[in-house]
């Protein structure tokens, strides 16, 4: 932040002081991307022209007054793409090679030979065709998997996904896939898209991976699907309620891998987020186009926009 401090008056604040700090401010950097304090302090944003959030998802700041304002919204897409893709490949391999069970047996001192599954040749559906979804697709293809995408509109011959199916036809296409990866942005259209109907159509041998937003999933329906054996496993990095409550059944369910919203958090990620903001601040200060401008009606950065 030193470079920015040399060009502008910078005010640092927590949630309680946000409204006071916002008065007269031209730009707001929401470094705490899990904070929901911005809507409550919005009345004080009397001069604000630009808001940048330190995450790819913008749902914590996507409230009606911001949508209707002239304030430009940018995000930090590009920082976590490769790291999340590595996570997704890692949990898929963990499922295929039964690594969680191997660790259990190791702790018990038991030698129990099993056969495992191949990853190559398995079919994966990546729901969400933004930069993170594309990084996941490339990573899974490199491991020999057959990958398709799912986005707002169907198309063929995509350079990363091959075929892209329309999100409106999710239930129709789910039965064809061994792994389903959720990485879609949270919008009114995607909220709760993975519900009882979706899980009921998946293969019983299929695994579900969520690295998008917890609200993409109806958690109660996922718990029921796991208990009734409708799907074979789930790897979850995001949840409707975070932190995940200690008494939540997902903690102890067999074939469920739980991680605390860390799939993208590599060593150095905090500095990388500030670097994205610093680059955009220099652009804003000199009148150049900003990177990662979010379409506030769609809730994400449209394809083809100047990226990170």
TrEMBL record:
Look up the coiled coil feature and give its residue ranges: none
Q: Which GO terms describe its molecular function?
A: NAD binding; oxidoreductase activity, acting on the CH-OH group of donors, NAD or NADP as acceptor
At the top level, the lineage of the source is Bacteria
Name the InterPro entries on file.
D-isomer_2_OHA_DH_cat_dom, D-isomer_DH_CS, D-isomer_DH_NAD-bd, NAD(P)-bd_dom_sf
Ranges for the D-isomer specific 2-hydroxyacid dehydrogenase catalytic domain? Answer: 16-294
The record's annotation in PROSITE patterns points to: D_2_HYDROXYACID_DH_3
Q: Give residue ranges for domain D-isomer specific 2-hydroxyacid dehydrogenase NAD-binding.
A: 90-263
Q: Which UniProt keywords apply?
A: NAD, Oxidoreductase
Family assignment?
Answer: Belongs to the D-isomer specific 2-hydroxyacid dehydrogenase family.
Protein name, entry field: D-2-hydroxyacid dehydrogenase
Q: Which organism is it from?
A: Amycolatopsis alkalitolerans
């Amino acid at each position: 932040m030193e470079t920015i401090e040399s060009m502008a008056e910078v005010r640092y604040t927590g949630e309680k002081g946000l409204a006071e700090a916002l008065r007269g401010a031209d730009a707001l950097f929401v470094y705490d991307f899990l904070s929901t304090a911005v809507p409550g302090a919005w009345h004080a944003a009397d001069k604000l022209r630009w808001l940048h959030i330190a995450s790819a998802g913008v749902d914590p700041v996507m409230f009606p007054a911001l949508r209707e304002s002239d304030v430009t919204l940018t995000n930090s897409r590009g920082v976590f793409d490769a790291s999340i893709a590595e996570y997704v490949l890692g949990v898929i391999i963990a499922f295929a090679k039964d690594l969680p069970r191997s660790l259990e047996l190791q702790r018990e001192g038991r030698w129990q030979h099993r056969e495992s599954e191949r990853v190559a040749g398995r079919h994966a559906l990546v729901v969400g065709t933004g930069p993170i979804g594309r990084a996941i697709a490339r990573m899974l293809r490199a491991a020999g998997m057959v990958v398709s995408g799912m986005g707002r509109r169907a198309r063929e011959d995509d350079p990363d996904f091959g075929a892209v199916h329309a999100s409106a036809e999710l239930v129709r296409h789910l039965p064809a896939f061994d792994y389903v990866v959720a990485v879609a942005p949270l919008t009114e259209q995607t909220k709760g898209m993975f519900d009882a109907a979706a899980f009921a159509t998946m293969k019983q041998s299929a695994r579900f991976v969520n690295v998008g937003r917890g609200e993409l999933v109806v958690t109660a329906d996922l718990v029921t699907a796991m208990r009734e054996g409708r799907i074979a496993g789930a790897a979850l990095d995001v949840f409707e309620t975070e932190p995940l409550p200690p008494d939540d059944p997902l903690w102890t369910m067999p074939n469920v891998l739980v991680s605390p919203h860390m799939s993208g958090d590599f060593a150095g990620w905090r500095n990388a987020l500030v670097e994205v903001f610093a680059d955009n601040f220099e652009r804003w200060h000199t009148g150049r186009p900003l990177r990662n401008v979010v379409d506030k009606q769609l809730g994400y950065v449209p394809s083809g926009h100047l990226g990170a």
